[in-house]
Amino acid sequence: MHEFDWSSIPNALPFLWDGMKISLEITLSAVVFGIVWGTLLALMRLSSVSVLSWFAAAYVNLFRAVPLVMVLLWFFLIVPHLLERLFGLPPGSDVRLASAIAGFALFEAAYYSEIIRAGIQSVPKGQMAAASALGMTYGQSMRLVVLPQAFRNMVPLLLTQGIILFQDTSLVYVSALADFFGAAYKVGDRDGRLVELLLFAGVVYFIICFAASRLVRHFQNRLKTA
Amino acid sequence: MISMNKVSKHFGTFQVLTDCTTQVHKGEVIVVCGPSGSGKSTLIKCVNGLEPFQSGEIIVNGVSVGDPKTNLSKLRSTVGMVFQNFELFPHMKIIDNLCIAQVKVLGRSLEQAREKGSKLLERVGLREQAEKFPGQLSGGQQQRVAIARALAMDPICMLFDEPTSALDPEMVNEVLDVMTELAQEGMTMMCVTHEMGFARRVASRVIFMDQGRIVEDDSKEAFFQNPRSERAQQFLAKILHH
User: Fold this and answer.
1) Are the C-beta atoms of residues B141 and B62 closer than 8 Å to each other?
2) Of A126, A137, A148, the CB nearest to B83
3) Is A197 within the bounds of a domain?
4) Which of residues 6-65 of A touch B (CB under 8 A)?
5) What angle do CA B65, B66, B71 make, to 5 degrees?
6) B-chain residues within 8 Å CB-CB of A137?
7) Which one of B104, B106, B136 would you mutate to disrupt binding with A, by most A Cβ within 10 Å of its Cβ?
8) DSSP 3-state of B218
9) CATH code of the domain covering residue A51
10) Which of A134, A135, A149 shows the shortest C-beta gap to B91?
């Protein structure tokens, strides 16, 4: 039977907290960029211009058909070199965080765009007609009338996707980036206490995600009564 | 004001409108009626270009609707439209429903828009509801707001697409009263409706449609007293029975 020894955790807390900050940074940036890019993709997909809708469909299908960890590795292996060349950065500059964020954002945008597309389609067609009949352009009708209602309906789904994204950030350990999971792994490895550290990390992930999903449920109920 | 010449439209092989020709002059109130599926809603949605059509021509106030060079948004901002299902914007307060297009399309200041909006709400008897959301109003109230919203744009004519069909019976009259008042003030109107009482009271002409064609286009006296087509006679017999 394994003897548990939790003594290495208290000293490692500041390091783990730094890791958590990286996890949260990746999550938040990827959610924001993912929603913005996902909205554009959704609009392209619904567009009557066939080149745009074809591009968006191809993009979404491509990213949904490859494993996230592979996308992250590509970004880890290829993008830093590209950035070094493009901006003349000295070799070995640390762009791991930037490339991880870019990888997540581009990957998640594919999922967000499908949620947002469904959200846009959930708004009755008559709303677009009414906005157009008042003389609004397509852009104004979308921005002022359709999208606000679509996002209102989508808030729970978008947040749920954000929670999944937060869990998925642990995959950046493949790029040796010290996010929360990576930091816990490093400490455990160093002190020979891997089991304890991973259990601890698991509990922390659980608490955060469980609390967040309760929050989403709360929103959902409020939306229903509104 | 509105002139249609041989307007035809089809969805795939299904012919929705065939050679529809009519004129609406300034100040006229035209009631469009006919059995369901006869193309009446499609016809008036062609007037402001919400429905595209394949052949023929519609000229509104000197502008051709079907011309690809026409700025449709600009044209629509001058033609008011009221829908069967009201289509108020549910995420905005009533007053904001009335202001948004005034500000974003006509470029009025928010202050001007609110003043105009309040006046129109007053006119349709809903001034107290300005700060509420559409979901808090009854159907009849929502439709009156929708009429006020269209009027806020100072339209040169108004299109009504079955404005009372989605309403509970006891709310029909409050909407018809607003429309009657509007007609008496000289607004040019095209109304798709089954409300024959309204047609008798205010219509200048009645258009009867069947299977995508304009079968009758006559003064209301002629239409109600001796409709020429058999189809219109049957329709009237059914609808006036009650």
Assistant:
1) no
2) A126
3) no
4) none
5) 55
6) 73
7) B104
8) strand
9) 1.10.3720.10
10) A149
Length of chain A: 226
Tokens 């409020």: give the residue: A222
Domain that holds residue A62: 24-178
Q: How far apart are CA A27 and CA A24, in angstroms?
A: 5
Cβ(B228)–Cβ(B27) under 8 Å? no
Q: What is the pLDDT of residues B74-126, one digit of tens each?
A: 999 999 999 999 999 999 999 999 999 999 999 999 999 999 999 999 999 99
The pLDDT tens digits for B189-237 are 999 999 999 999 999 999 999 999 999 999 988 998 888 888 898 888 8
**Chain B CA closest to residue A147:** B91
Handedness of CA A96, A97, A100, A102 (dihedral sign): negative
Asked, for residue A34, whether it belongs to a domain, the answer is: yes
- What is the total count of domains within chain A? 1
Question: Touching check for A148 and chain B: CB below 8 Å?
Answer: yes
Of A124, A133, A145, the CB nearest to B50: A133
Q: What is the pTM (predicted TM-score) of this model?
A: 0.86
Interface contact flag, A136 B90, Cβ < 8 Å: no
Say if the Cβ atoms of B150 and A132 lie within 8 Å.
no
